[in-house]
UniProtKB/TrEMBL annotation:
It is an enzyme of class 2 (transferase). This is Phytoene synthase. InterPro entries: Isoprenoid_synthase_dom_sf, Squ/phyt_synthse, Squalene/phytoene_synthase_CS, Trans_IPPS_bact-type, Trans_IPPS_HH. Pathway: Carotenoid biosynthesis. It comes from Alkalicoccobacillus murimartini.
Amino acid sequence: MKTLEEAYQDCHTIINRHSKTFSKAFSLLPSGKRKAVWAIYAFCRSVDDIVDDGENPVEELAEFERQFTLFLEKQLPLDHSMWTALDDVFTKFPVDKQAFTDMITGQKMDLVKSRYQTMEEVELYSYYVAGTVGLMLLPILAPKNHEQLEVGGKALGTAMQITNILRDIGEDIQRGRIYLPQDLMDKHGVSVEQIQAGKVTDAFIDLWEEMAERAEQLYDMALESIDYYPIDARFPVKGAAYMYRAILNSVRRNHYDVYTTRSFITQEEKQDILSQL
């Protein structure tokens, strides 16, 4: 069995491999909080990978959910780095267990639903798969007043997921999923066939920008409560918001090509954002 430190380092490897933006932002946290973020990210990544890449995702997700129930009941053997690290997190911080359960619920949605009719539906989905992550992190970032920050935490996670949706349209269509809501597609005259063909038209850009405007409203909402975070968490949260928001501008610089180009922000851009906080 690995030591606690080795378990946390395994979680650190996962966050560095899959989300350099997230890792960079929260690297500013003190050690204890930083490691807890690694463990929570590893949990979220595990669920996400089952849904996107599992050989039998329905059965695998059901098994993961069973393991999480045993974990909460203190009956799961801690023979995996993620569970070992997460057990330490649950011991040290006032975690919101329901947020973890809701996140699994959100991932289940991807197994049964591939189209969304309204922006409200997209936002609800975004809450379940990412707004929940905000609620998971709040007791780590602000253990003494995390309840006060829930509205902003949900908004930030939801904004990040809408950003993911707008960046990953091409990848999602390969998985048979379209997260662009049908009502906005109808409003702007964008068809499923156009999305499947990877066409960037003026109508598509208008649709994309309307969703991006909503994401930016949610980023603004999240930042309204930034001064209520403890000082050691204030800059990491602000950095995460600004760096993720910058992905939207990266897509714009790439002329909205979300089909053949994956938009990202460079290390230099990240450093520049952090230096201006």
